[in-house]
Design a protein that fits this description.
The chain has a domain of 162 residues. The chain contains one helix and 31 strands. A hairpin with a 5-residue loop joins strand 15 and strand 16. The N and C termini lie far apart (43 Å).
């Protein structure tokens, strides 16, 4: 069992409302398959969570809400593996990958596969979807000299289908590109061999020097997180990027130790991810804190819980999701369930002390 460090909590004259009460909930799993589920994405306010679980249909996507519990998402054409984990801000669209092709789900349309591009392998991904049902990702469009598929950034709508986005430079066509995120104003955040960029049909490409390696953006492109090589060139380490500050390493890792961020709140004040083998949260880009210790510091009883992974945090910073296991789960198989950790809003004035060390708030003002 992971040792829990002594923790103190100082609340500075702030009363948390009923909706902000800290809690840790396991989402359960789908019937008919292995007792395994992982939560991998959340809506902007944390009210809708998605992930995958095993059912009698294979690996299935699910949608979870506090009121409705875990519900299997319908498939487009029968059994098969469904990979998912991306939710639109309102939670009305969920995207992922089904039978090797990107897919988008909504209550009105069910699950729709986005297809692929001509000339390549039958393969596509959807990495983000917005509240209008526009999805971005990548799809195979050809093969390199070794026969491996090449992928390029794509955008999909129900009315227009799948379209390939242009390349920033002609030389990118020989290597490929990817679209990672959709900003609120419709710009696409992506990357190619020539660098990281924002793209819109009206203004074309805006290159982002220093943001190479960033894999996720907030809603307006002012804060991004990703994994970059450390100065020794021996490991990929977690980092963040802002237009004013450029590339910055997240603290808590000795160079040569791997780590990566997997989710961020919209203002960058809450970042979750992995530090070596630990699942952690960075508050205001401060020293990383184990997710389990962080939950304990909020007054949540984490006895028996082991955090397997942490995948995402809601845009408002109040909900962290991933996978966990409890020591009371015995019997055949390795039971894991998705978890939903509800935390106080980042605006609440809370200072966490770990072993007597106060982690001071260092909120950045984003413009």
């Amino acid at each position: 069992m992971m040792k829990v460090l002594p923790v103190c909590v100082l609340v500075l004259g702030v009363s948390f409302g009923a909706a902000a009460q800290p809690s840790f909930v396991a989402v359960g799993d789908l019937p008919g398959g292995l007792p395994v589920s992982y939560a991998g994405g959340t809506s902007a306010d944390g009210s809708v969570v998605t992930g995958f679980s095993y059912s009698d249909q294979g690996v299935s996507a699910f949608r979870w809400t506090e009121a409705g519990g875990i519900q299997e998402l319908p498939r487009s054409n029968g059994p098969g593996t469904y990979e998912t984990g991306f939710v639109s801000p309102s939670g009305n669209y969920i995207s992922g990958r089904y039978q090797g092709l990107g897919a988008v789900w909504s209550e009105a349309t069910g699950t729709v596969q986005v297809g692929d591009l001509p000339g390549g392998s039958d393969s596509s991904f959807v990495w983000a979807v917005n509240d209008q049902g526009t999805a971005v990702g990548q799809a195979s469009y050809g093969f390199n000299s070794l026969g491996a598929p090449l992928f390029r950034a794509t955008r999909w709508t129900a009315s227009g289908g799948l379209e390939a986005l242009p390349f920033p430079t002609a030389t990118d066509e020989d290597i490929g590109s990817v679209a990672w995120s959709l900003l609120d104003d419709g710009r696409v955040f992506g990357q190619s061999a020539s660098g990281a960029w924002l793209y819109s049909d009206s203004d074309g490409f805006e290159m982002l020097p220093g943001a190479e390696g960033m894999g996720e953006s907030n809603s307006d492109g002012t804060f991004m997180v990703g994994q970059v090589s450390d100065p020794t060139g021996t490991a990929g380490v977690p980092a963040y990027w802002t237009p004013d500050g450029g590339l910055q390493y997240l603290p808590g890792l000795a160079f040569g130790q791997p780590g990566n961020p997997t989710g961020l709140s919209d203002d960058g004040s809450v970042i979750v991810g992995r530090r070596a083998s630990d699942q952690v949260v960075w508050i205001d880009q401060g020293e990383p804190v184990l997710i389990r210790d962080y939950a304990e510091s909020l007054g949540i009883d984490m006895t028996g819980w082991t955090i397997i992974n942490v995948i995402d945090v809601s845009a408002d910073g109040t909900t962290i999701v991933g996978g966990a296991r409890h020591s009371s789960w015995v019997g055949p198989g390795f039971r894991v369930e998705g978890f939903v950790l509800t935390i106080p809003a980042p605006g609440a004035a809370v200072v966490f002390g770990f072993s007597g060390l106060l982690v001071q708030r260092r909120r950045r003002c984003l413009h």
